[in-house]
Design goal:
The chain has about 475 residues and is an alpha/beta fold. Helices cover about 30% and strands about 25% of the residues. It has a six-stranded antiparallel beta sheet, with helices on one face. Its cofactor is [2Fe-2S] cluster; FAD.
Length: about 475
């Protein structure tokens, strides 16, 4: 069936047919029923794309005179024209049974890259277990790595600035969960950024830094966390961070600068040296654009400030560890601000004690931290259920299992002893990932940090921080 378009397969067949010798004399002239006799060509050992293309165009010119008459003369084949032709709606082109290179190329691009319209129309991220693909990986500092992720299908990542997601990883044949704050902002919703600081001996941080690469896929759950700008209202912000605790502050700052350009932000970050400052360029850029963004650094090695001040000449510096005198110098009105703190536990303990001693209104104090934790091996009682109860112990009923718990054991230890799936990222009552619901019985909890008043009223507890004081029924 004749077609009006260029067919690569037809051209290839035509060229191969014209190249077959009529005899052992490879320089003999070639004759085709539809072509004039052509002079002998120099011998060629391979297929000539130019020759095939010329032959195909000659075929088109002689076999479709009506079509040729309809269009202006063309001096040669145009790849861009063929591509444009292939991309026209199918209804405007005759059907063809041959392979179209341009069509195949356009088809592949459509399959691998979503259109801008598809991206714009993407559904919002819903809290559930999802698979993401790593699309970028880079070093922030000598021991900090950032990753950028997208959904396997276009998705808008809607979350509260400051929230975290939890990675579900398989390391050495074991399933491991670990939570990391989302470093990007929902004001830029088409990708997620997570920043990981390598910790000596850290199981997950080193695994991610060494083994998670561009195009790899990873399973995550989220978003979660009450440490965020939406659930904690404020008029004036004081962000205090150390080390990788800067990640939620980066997300919050970006959100405020993108959505509320007049936000009053004071940011004080503590680091070992200028070479250990994460997001230095991004923070300087935000501070430079916003007259109400005060950017300050506390450096243990205070002599190396040139690289930071060169980014933004309004940067303030102090040397050593944080104390109330240095804070008052950098942020004179700190008492009137809502404080968000994130960093190593020792840093947050010091900040909390400092503010309490300064008579700060601790209702305006908020903190969160994530770090590497060792795997916990549960030593659940070996007694039978009847022996355990006879000895005055209590039973935990969850997922049709009855688990004997000692008085010093948490719900999390009992759940893990039975091999039941539960996300336990921080194991210290700050991340909220192990939230579950007590439907019957009594418990005592050492932390309710991430639970709302409504959740507590409904019976929710944090498994890592809760022990039972009676027989308990639990929903996960």
């Amino acid at each position: 069936m004749s077609t009006s378009g260029f067919s690569f397969s037809t051209a290839l067949a035509s060229a191969q047919s014209s190249k077959e010798p009529a005899s052992d004399n490879s320089n003999a002239p070639t004759t085709d029923a539809n072509l004039k006799t052509t002079p002998a060509a120099p011998s060629s050992s391979g297929f000539s794309f130019a020759g095939a293309l010329s032959s195909a165009q000659a075929d088109n010119a002689t076999s479709t005179p009506a079509k040729a008459a309809e269009k202006p003369a063309s001096s040669g084949f145009s790849f861009s024209g063929a591509l444009a032709s292939a991309q026209k709606p199918a209804a405007t082109k005759p059907a063809t049974g041959g392979f179209s290179f341009a069509g195949a190329l356009a088809s592949k691009q459509t399959q691998t890259q979503p259109t801008q319209a598809q991206v714009l129309a993407a559904d919002e991220w819903q809290r559930r277990e999802v698979t993401l693909r790593c699309i970028e990986k880079w070093n922030e500092t000598h021991d900090v790595v950032s990753f950028r992720f997208k959904g396997l299908e276009p998705v808008k990542f809607n979350f509260k600035p400051g929230q975290f997601l939890t990675f579900k990883l398989t390391i050495d044949g074991k399933t491991v969960y670990r939570s990391y704050t989302i470093a990007s902002s929902p004001s830029r919703p088409y990708s997620l950024m997570v920043t990981v600081k390598r910790i000596e001996g850290g199981l997950v941080s080193n695994h991610l830094a060494e083994h998670l690469n561009v195009d790899d896929e990873v399973t995550v759950v989220g978003p979660d966390g009450a440490f965020n700008l939406i659930d904690i209202a404020a008029d004036k912000y004081l962000f205090l961070s150390a080390g990788s605790g800067v990640t939620p502050m980066h997300s919050m700052s970006r959100w405020l600068c993108d959505t509320s350009v007049d936000s009053d932000i004071a940011f004080v970050h503590s680091a070992q040296s200028s070479h250990d400052v994460i997001f230095a360029d991004a923070m300087a850029s935000m501070a430079q654009r916003s007259p109400q963004f005060s950017l300050s650094y506390l450096l243990r090695e205070g002599s190396e400030t040139a690289s930071l001040s060169a980014r933004f000449d309004g940067t303030q510096f102090e040397t050593g560890r944080i104390n109330v005198e240095k804070l008052a110098t950098l942020v004179p009105d700190y008492q009137s601000r809502t404080v968000f703190v994130c960093g190593p536990q020792s840093y947050m303990d010091a900040v909390k004690a400092m503010l309490e001693a300064a008579d700060f209104n601790m209702d305006n104090f908020n903190q969160e931290s994530f770090g590497e934790v060792a795997s916990v091996t549960s030593n659940a009682p070996k007694l039978s259920a009847s022996e355990h109860k006879a000895a005055g112990g209590f039973m935990l009923k969850v997922a049709d299992k009855e688990i004997a718990l000692g008085s010093d054991q948490t719900l999390l230890e009992g759940i893990e002893a039975e091999g039941l799936p539960i996300i336990a990222a921080c194991r210290s009552g700050v991340c909220g990932a192990c939230k579950c619901k007590v439907t019957d019985g009594t418990t005592i909890s050492s932390s309710k940090m991430t639970l709302t008043a409504a959740e507590i009223e409904a019976g929710y507890v944090l498994a890592c921080s809760t022990k039972i004081t009676s027989d308990v029924d639990l929903e996960m």
